[in-house]
Design brief:
Elements (H helix, E strand, L loop, with lengths): L2 H4 L2 E12 L2 E12 L3 E5 L6 H9 L6 E6 L2 E2 L5 H5 L3 E4 L11 H8 L12 H7 L1 H5 L10 H13 L5 E5 L7 H16 L3 E5 L3 H7 L2 E6 L2 E7 H5 L2 H8 L2
Helix pairs in contact: 4-7
The protein binds adenosine-5'-triphosphate.
The site of adenosine-5'-triphosphate has 11 residues, from strand 2 and helix 2.
Keywords: Amino-acid transport, ATP-binding, Nucleotide-binding, Transport
GO molecular function: ATP binding; ATP hydrolysis activity; branched-chain amino acid transmembrane transporter activity
Pfam family, one: ABC_tran
């Protein structure tokens, strides 16, 4: 067994069946994310990537299946309880409070990690995102899209997570800002925080992530080390259209 496969599972989802009303969206999704691992979830629009994240976190509870976080069965638990097990969630659309300043947005998220760690302080987040230091007293609602994304990532880091989940963190951003976001995600990876990333920039993800999953119509059809998927343009073409 390699060191990677021996690492503690942070998230174990098994057989998730998720619906929006009568619409059946996830058809038995199972996935594991281990400590320190960087995993990307690929797939065309509307395949169920966001729903997978929301089901794991309890925002859209699965109708069937199990969710374990660090070995504890939290199936059906409210989202705030699941996220408090060491998960920093950066949702699609960023979820800003427009009337809070950057400082307030970051400080209100501050808490120790599940093991008591307080590695990520306001100072460290501002050091990571110098642009935010310049905007510290501005209202979040007045920031550019890229700056808001930085606040969203910074806020998640302030919770001292073991796992960051980033849903479309670079969507709609200018190339330079995008590059900055990728730089930070790489830096996060290097600190040993596990990451689950959903993004349209497949090439960047395949370089960045240890493992790649592909989702097609609510089913995970591929799960391999990213290096293996990089060598399979046929699979990328078939499922993602690259
Ligand atoms: N709140 C909702 N109510 C009803 N249907 C929904 C809802 N959210 C998503 N869906 C449907 O569920 C399916 C999966 O959507 P989901 O957002 O999980 O896909 P995705 O892979 O994340 O795609 P995208 O990249 O476009 O966000 C889609 O058919 C979508 O239309």
């Amino acid at each position: 067994m390699t060191a990677m496969t021996a690492a503690e599972p942070l998230v174990e989802a098994e057989g998730l069946q998720t619906y929006y009303g009568r619409s059946h969206v996830l058809h038995g999704v199972s996935l594991t994310i281990r400590r320190g691992e960087t995993v990307c979830l690929l797939g065309r629009n509307g395949m169920g990537k966001t729903t997978t994240i929301k089901s794991v976190l309890g925002f859209v509870p699965p109708r069937d299946g199990r969710v374990r976080i660090k070995g504890a069965d939290l199936t059906g638990a409210p989202a705030n309880r699941i996220v408090r097990q060491g998960i920093g969630y950066v949702p699609e659309g960023r979820g800003m409070f427009p009337n809070l300043t950057v400082r307030e947005s970051l400080l209100m998220a501050s808490r120790a990690g599940t093991d008591g760690r307080r590695d990520w302080t306001l100072e460290r987040v501002l050091h990571t995102f110098p642009r935010l230091a310049e905007r510290i007293d501005n209202l979040a609602g007045t920031l550019s899209g890229g700056e808001q994304q930085m606040v969203a990532i910074g806020r998640a880091l302030m919770t001292n997570p073991d796992l960051m989940i980033l849903d479309e963190a670079t969507e709609g951003l200018a190339p330079l800002i995008r590059r900055d976001i990728w730089r930070v995600i790489r830096a996060i990876k290097e600190t040993g925080i596990a990451t689950l990333v959903v993004d349209k920039n497949v090439k960047v993800l395949l370089d960045l992530c240890d493992r790649s999953l592909i989702m097609v119509k609510g089913v995970l059809v591929h799960d391999s080390p990213s290096a293996e998927l990089r060598a399979r343009p046929d699979i990328l073409q078939q499922h993602i259209g690259l």
